[in-house]
Recover the amino acids of this structure.
């Protein structure tokens, strides 16, 4: 047996594995030798606790006390950890504190609440408003109204069955006639459409199948974290990735409690930062999971002038009005109005009721006589104007719910006197009218609703309406300003090294809408917007029969990014696209005729001459796609932070969102430039952790000469040098590198990928980039 080796306390690099019944702990254990040879220090596992049977992702937890049986149970996890240790690897585990699956037949805690009501010891686990819906927990599970579904509800002993759903019966009610039996329960099965306006429990975003958990309660925290904390204490797992902290009542307090409970283990949080937002300095975490790094790396390989030109072509070709995809800010605002009015109507109604109570019960006359409709309007107008996900106790609501936002919200009222409701709501949020339990509830609910609104309106709606450059429409992205100049990228890296040196960084995750390699291809279009417009005009004229020009634009960018994609993958991606956009069809109100036209368009275009035209253009730009792919990969692996390598992305990985990016892990066979580069960079990180860690340094290098702006370079701790080609197509059109040079720091440097290549002093960039458009050098001596 191989001697056991300890994994470092802080990862040098992690490798994300999507666990599921098709890829359990045993399969992950078999992959350990391959992953250890790759050069990572830790395996990053998707959630490992008991989930809904058959779940392909594990975020629908049903039992926090057990490691998931379908994956091999705790014994399987321990065996994986043991084998990982033998190869010098540790385990980082994804935890889900915000929600559980609302599936009572699998979720014992919820089952007990449904059976015993608010007196159940588990009632404190969930955010249930027992004052609403006559004291019954609304369960939106019926396919139609109750009258049409009554015959499908069956009493079976001490349970109630509805197709695959099973619910407990309140003691002593089993013999009642069905209508009276339903009225006698602590819950009420209703038509699923009522969830939008009538739901009385907190959920994950607008997904009623996931019920929110109150981990702010110390007893609930202990019960839901006990197993993972025990496994941490016993050395089975080594670090944590916290899913969706923005959904929690008080992320500050939760993260402090978690930090204390783990003894300060390496922990990163899935916090989505706006472009000008920083992670709260008070949070005792290593940093984020890395979407902020993704935005900066992607932006580095996006041509700003070309992105602007591409936007012009998009407006002319797709013809969207400003509030339907023509401009980013109006598109986002319109999407936010739709979400806050429809998908999150029940959350806003609850906020309005709490605000109304605060006004009615206040001893201060200044809070009296505010109509519920005015308070609700003020809430909606403020919510849609927040530019970040939510406020935090450690940051202060005034920095988020700004006076500028309040002024705009007041202007939305037609009667100026009614606009005073905006000031009332803002003052309540800022704590100016007291600080009792109801005030805390109001501020908490507002913050939780705000984070759901931002995610649903931006990532799940506006990103599918504003599509001039699909590579910019990524989690944490800024579609209205997609390019990141090199100097801004260097400033970001310096800030990360100073403030969050072991934060997570990513390029692809289980949630990215397009993998890094697909985005790298699409971003090349910013370097040739005119040529792309010509290609698009040709294929549009040749294909015909497109449902709408907006879809055409998105479809061919997707096809270009994937490259000869299987027809069913493209069809599935575009159907998701149009349903999320919600302009012609939606997930819940599907238009069969429109969706059939989408399928026919894909079938006629992808397989025919038009598909070959796009593929031909992709082939012509292949060297520049390669430069983007390799450049982004190397920057990610050597910039400040701890890189997370998503399964399969060590080689070519072209994937879209579900189900592409949650497929079972498959080792990359054969060799490739990207694979070779990834192994070299990861090997360096593991062999020389001090060069990249907490006390490391980040130093930008600036090239000189005609192609200087196309060379991005930096040095880590004076020992490792990264240089990549930026905007290679523009560079080629300008005549190539010519006499462009890069002055290396003193001493001798060797190419990590080719030990025979050595450099010193001032070098020609054309020589530095030999067979690859990137270079990774290591200092080997001299001053």
């Amino acid at each position: 047996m191989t001697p056991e080796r300890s994994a470092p306390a802080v990862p040098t690099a992690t490798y994300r594995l999507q666990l599921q019944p098709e890829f359990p702990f045993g399969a992950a254990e078999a992959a350990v030798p391959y992953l250890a040879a790759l050069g990572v220090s830790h395996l990053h596992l998707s959630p490992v606790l008991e989930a809904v049977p058959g779940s392909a992702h594990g975020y629908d937890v049903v039992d926090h006390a057990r490691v998931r049986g379908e994956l091999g149970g705790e014994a399987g996890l321990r065996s994986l950890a043991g084998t990982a240790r033998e190869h010098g690897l540790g385990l980082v585990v994804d935890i889900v504190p915000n929600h559980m699956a609302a599936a009572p037949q699998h979720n014992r805690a919820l089952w007990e609440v449904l059976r015993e009501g608010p007196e159940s010891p588990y009632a404190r686990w969930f955010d249930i408003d027992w004052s609403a819906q006559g004291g019954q927990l609304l369960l939106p599970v019926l396919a139609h109204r109750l009258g049409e579904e009554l015959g499908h509800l069956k009493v079976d002993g001490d349970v109630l069955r509805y197709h695959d759903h099973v619910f407990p019966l309140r003691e002593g009610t089993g013999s009642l006639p069905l209508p009276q039996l339903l009225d006698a329960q602590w819950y009420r099965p209703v038509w699923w459409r009522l969830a939008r306006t009538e739901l009385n429990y907190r959920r994950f975003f607008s997904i009623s199948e996931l019920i929110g958990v109150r981990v702010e309660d110390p007893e609930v925290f202990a019960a839901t974290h006990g197993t993972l904390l025990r496994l941490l204490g016993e050395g089975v797992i080594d670090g944590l990735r916290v899913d969706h902290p923005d959904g929690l009542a008080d992320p500050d307090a939760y993260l402090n409690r978690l930090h204390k409970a783990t003894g300060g283990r390496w922990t990163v949080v899935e916090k989505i930062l706006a472009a000008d937002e920083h992670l709260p300095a008070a949070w005792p975490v290593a940093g984020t999971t890395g979407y902020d790094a993704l935005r900066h790396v992607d932006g580095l390989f996006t041509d700003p002038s070309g992105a602007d030109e591409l936007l012009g072509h998009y407006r002319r070709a797709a013809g969207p009005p400003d509030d339907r995809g023509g401009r980013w800010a109006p598109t986002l605002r319109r999407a936010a109005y739709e979400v806050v009015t429809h998908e999150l109507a029940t959350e806003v109604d609850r906020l309005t009721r709490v605000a109304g109570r605060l006004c009615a019960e206040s001893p201060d006359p200044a809070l009296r006589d505010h109509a519920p409709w005015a308070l609700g309007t003020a809430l909606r107008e403020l919510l849609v104007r927040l530019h970040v996900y939510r406020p935090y106790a450690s940051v202060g609501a005034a920095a988020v719910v700004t006076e500028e936002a309040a002024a705009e919200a007041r202007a939305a009222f037609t009667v100026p006197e009614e606009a005073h409701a905006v000031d009332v709501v803002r003052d309540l949020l800022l704590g100016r009218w007291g600080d009792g339990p109801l005030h805390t509830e109001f501020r908490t609910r507002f913050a939780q609703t705000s984070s759901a609104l931002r995610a649903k309106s931006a990532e799940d709606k506006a990103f599918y309406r504003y599509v001039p450059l699909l590579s910019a429409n990524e989690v944490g992205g800024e579609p209205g300003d997609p390019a990141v100049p090199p100097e801004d990228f260097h400033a970001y890296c310096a800030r990360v090294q100073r403030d969050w040196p072991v934060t997570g960084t990513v390029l692809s995750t289980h949630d990215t809408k397009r993998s890094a390699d697909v985005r790298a291809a699409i971003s090349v279009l910013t370097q040739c917007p005119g040529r792309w417009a010509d290609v698009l005009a040709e294929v549009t004229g040749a294909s015909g029969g497109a449902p709408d020009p907006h879809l055409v634009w998105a479809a061919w960018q997707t096809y270009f990014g994937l490259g000869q994609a299987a027809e069913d993958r493209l069809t599935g991606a575009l159907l998701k696209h149009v349903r999320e956009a919600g302009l012609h069809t939606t997930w819940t109100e599907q238009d069969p005729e429109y969706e059939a036209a989408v399928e026919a368009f894909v079938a006629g275009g992808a397989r025919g001459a038009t598909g070959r035209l796009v593929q031909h253009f992709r082939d012509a730009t292949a060297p520049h796609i390669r430069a983007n792919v390799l450049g982004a990969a190397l920057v990610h692996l050597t910039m400040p932070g701890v890189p997370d390598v998503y399964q399969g992305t060590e080689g070519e990985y072209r994937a879209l969102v579900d189900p592409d990016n949650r497929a079972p892990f498959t080792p990359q066979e054969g060799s490739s430039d990207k694979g070779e580069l990834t192994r070299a960079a990861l090997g360096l990180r593991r062999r020389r952790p001090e060069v990249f860690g907490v006390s490391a340094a980040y130093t930008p290098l600036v090239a000189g000469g005609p192609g200087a702006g196309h060379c991005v370079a930096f040095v880590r701790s004076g020992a490792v040098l990264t240089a990549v080609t930026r905007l290679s197509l523009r560079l080629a059109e300008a005549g190539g590198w010519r006499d462009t040079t890069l002055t290396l720091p003193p001493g001798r440097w060797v190419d990590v990928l080719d030990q025979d290549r050595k450099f010193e002093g001032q070098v020609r960039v054309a020589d530095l980039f030999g067979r690859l458009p990137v270079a990774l050098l290591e200092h080997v001596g001299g001053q």
